[in-house]
Specification:
29% of the residues lie in helices and 23% in strands. It is α+β, with helices and mostly antiparallel strands. An eight-stranded antiparallel β-sheet has the order 1-2-3-4-8-7-6-5.
Length: 167
């Protein structure tokens, strides 16, 4: 009696075992990055941005993280992203616009914190400008960050001078 299913089953079993070994070896090399989720990480407005994140920023590849609405690029991590952080209020900190997205920049030593301005929930990026260019980071993340709708914009000194004066 001929059993045509037998070779197919054996091959399927081999493929499943091989798939499991490959998956195991891949996870063994690069464990998930430990990133603390932001307070409002469960906000549904984070989801469209998270699915639009780039696979790489510069030469740094996207890695898995262990918490909701977070991302990391590079090994070791050069860029960490968290959606759902506190929305920044009016500030005198430097605010830049890159590809239509406003960011408040707090220069630390060595880590800079870049937070979207005028978008709720806000997104925070932690990065070291000595290891990766802030211009590259902001340009590569602008498309994804723009998925969270803008409700306000940065106002610069030149904008303040153009406001109507009260008499």
């Amino acid at each position: 009696m001929h059993h045509p299913q037998l070779p197919l089953t054996a091959r399927a079993t081999r493929m499943a075992v091989l798939g499991a070994v490959v998956a195991l070896s891949m996870t063994a090399c690069s464990p998930a990055v430990d990133v603390t989720a932001a307070k409002d990480a469960a906000n549904p407005a984070c989801a469209p941005m998270m699915v639009a994140l780039p696979d790489a920023i510069g030469d740094s590849r996207l890695r898995k993280t262990n918490s909701q609405a977070t991302a990391a690029w590079g090994d070791p991590s050069l860029v960490i992203l968290r959606c759902g952080v506190n929305v920044p209020g009016p500030t005198t900190d430097r605010c830049v616009t890159v590809n239509g997205v406003d960011w408040v920049i707090k220069e630390g030593d060595p880590v800079w914190t870049l937070t979207t301005y005028g978008r709720e929930p806000a997104t925070e990026i932690l990065m070291d400008p000595d290891k990766i260019s802030s211009a590259t980071v902001l340009a590569d993340l602008a498309g994804a960050a723009a998925k969270v709708p803008s409700v306000r914009n940065c106002v610069g000194q030149e904008d303040l001078q153009n406001l109507p004066q009260s008499k």
